[in-house]
Amino acid sequence: MRGRPSHASRLAGSRRSVLMSLMALALASCGSSGTSAGPDRASGSAPDTLPSQPAVSTGPSPSSTTVTANPTAKQSTDPNFEGTRVAFDPANFVDPTLDTNPFHPLKPGLQFVRAGTTEVGSRVVPHEIITTMTDVVRIIDGVPTIAMLDESTDSGEVSQHSIDYLALDKDGNVWILGGYTEDYEGGAYTNTDSAWLGASSGGEVGILSPAKVDINTPRWLIGRAPEEKAAVGTPVQVGITTCVTFGCYDNVRVVQEGNIGAPDNENKYYAPGVGVINNIPLDASLHQDTFQLTNFVELSPTGLAEASQTVLDLEAHARKVAPDPFGSAPKSTRLH
Predict the structure, then answer these.
(1) What secondary structure letter does DSSP report for 84?
(2) In this structure, are residues 180 and 163 in contact, taking their beta carbons and an 8 Å threshold?
(3) Using an 8 Å Cβ cutoff, are 34 and 298 in contact?
(4) Which pLDDT tens digit goes with each residue over 52-106?
(5) Which helix (H) or strand (E) holds 16?
(6) What is the DSSP letter of 17?
(7) For the segment 96-111, what is each residue's pLDDT rounded down to a tens digit?
(8) pTM to 2 decimal places
(9) How many C-alpha atoms does 264 have within 13 Å on its Cβ side?
(10) Which burial class, exposed, middle or buried, applies to 103 when counting CB atoms under 10 A from its CB (0-12, 13-18, 19+)?
(11) Residue 179 has pLDDT above 90, yes or no
(12) 240 near 252, Cβ under 8 Å?
């Protein structure tokens, strides 16, 4: 978004001190009302602060990202994966609220509304996802993460609530280090679809949104929840202009995302300053989810508190229905 305050000035006072305490703990362990962003902010290009190094690399070179592997992290568990993994090292991560990747904003309080259709059985029904960057943080595999909340509705009824725990490395890559997903029917909880907290719980961590991508960037590992196939990303187009319901955007990257064995699940369109603005289902898509960005706001403190409390409530339920891994994990903390 153009006109946003500088990264350094976004969080101050006690909120920053809480996160610094969490990062100190991580290092020790290693060793909806709001202000509309408005369509006038839609068009833009990547800022000058983009990391100069590529997000993924196949080996050391003068311009590649070189990371020391963490010997305790599980790597490369799927023999069918053909692509690039960036080695996971807790020492390579920073405060995620620094928000240095414009293609996946992490600033607490940002909320994105995306709407379209999905298939339920043989019916095509309206589908909406409200995504909120909360101020809930937790340490996973020695790394500070921030919780992203997704609230999905089909035909106006709650169908799914999910949490993704996102981390930020020094090069600006946004990683996914864990998650929790609940399914609903008729507005009532039915089952837990996924629950994992890092490699220590049997998952495989990876890069959800690289800081820098060109058309020659090789396929990369996004991540894998336990007992599931790994998700991968492949660039399809970069630097294009795309218009959606909310506005028009420049310097958009298109990434084909899907599971190993079915990588052609969907094309996601990422715009700088906003993140995902469009989703187009492909051949392997089971539910043919299609959606576009329809609203983008920055929540008031009250709205942020409500979203963050939803995350904490979901985690409390997770400790009951998914005690492995949530039962013994330390509780998350809000930045306040």
Answers:
(1) B
(2) yes
(3) yes
(4) 333 333 222 222 232 222 323 333 455 566 677 889 999 999 999 999 999 999 9
(5) helix 13-30
(6) H
(7) 999 999 999 999 999 9
(8) 0.80
(9) 3
(10) buried
(11) yes
(12) yes
Helix (H) or strand (E) holding 263: strand 262-271
Closest CA to 55 of 281, 315, 264, 233: 233
pLDDT, the chain, mean: 81
- Kindly write down the DSSP assignment for every residue of 89-149, as one continuous string: -GGGEE-GGG---TTS---TTEEEEEEEEEEETTEEEEEEEEEEEEEEEEEETTEEEEEEE
**Which run of H or of E encompasses 326?**
helix 323-326
Which residue type is seen at 11?
A: L
63 closest CA partner among 181, 235, 275, 216? 216
d(CA 202, CA 225) in angstroms, rounded, equals 7
Instruction: Report which DSSP code applies to 164.
Output: E
CB 227 within 8 A of CB 205: no
Half-sphere exposure for 319 (CA within 13 Å, toward CB):
11
Q: For residues 77 and 276, give the distance between their C-alpha atoms in angstroms, rounded to a whole number.
A: 28
* Number of CB atoms found within 10 A of residue 55's CB: 25
- Tokens 């329809």 locate to 294
Provide Rg for the chain, Cα atoms: 19
Instruction: Assign 12 to helix, strand or coil.
Output: coil
Return d(Cα 16, Cα 24) in angstroms, integer: 12
Q: Specify the amino acid at residue 32.
A: S
Chain centre to alpha carbon of residue 119: 24
Measured CA to CA, the distance from residue 301 to residue 183 in angstroms comes to 28
